[in-house]
Amino acid sequence: MSRSPRAALLAAGVAALVVACADTDPTEAQIARGGELYERHCAACHGGATGGDISDIPPRHNAEGHTWHHADCELERIVLEGMPQREGYPEMPAFGEELSEEDVEAILAHIKTWWEPYQRASQAETTEQVC
Ligand code: HEC
After folding, report:
1. Where would you tag: which of 34, 37, 81, 111 has the fewest CB atoms within 10 A of its CB?
2. What is the per-residue pLDDT across 94-103, written as a single tens digit (0 to 9) for each?
3. CA–CA dist 89, 68 (Å, integer)
4. 35, part of any domain
């Protein structure tokens, strides 16, 4: 019987964690909006849900690419500010004038649906450490 308060506390802790995680989960609407934005602004250079490999430039954002190696705040910064162009390759443009932070979050939520569960978990950990 002496264990029950502890068990109750543990249950409350787990429940709080579940709620905290659910809060940050993207909604279906956010993912759908991210998909539309991705098709309009990104797909022509970065491709779709499948295909390509890790050495592609522009990089694939799907499970074959390396986007999942980078934290959310780094990805957001790249999309809003762009990257210096490498000779012989197309430029990663800055989207800060066209897209809001919410737009970029929606695009990332969409891209993440293409990743394997271990890639999503690893990238979430990286984001926690870096951002
Ligand atoms: C005109 C082609 C072009 C368009 C359009 C474009 N990109 Fe890129 N993007 C690139 C290139 C090229 C690179 C690689 C630059 C480098 O490595 O030097 C890149 C790199 C990136 C990276 C960093 C590398 C990585 O691992 O993912 C992210 C994130 C990214 N793009 C996201 C986007 C998003 C999101 C959009 C749409 C809003 C977009 N890009 C539109 C060409 C493009």
Report:
1. 81
2. 999 999 999 9
3. 22
4. yes
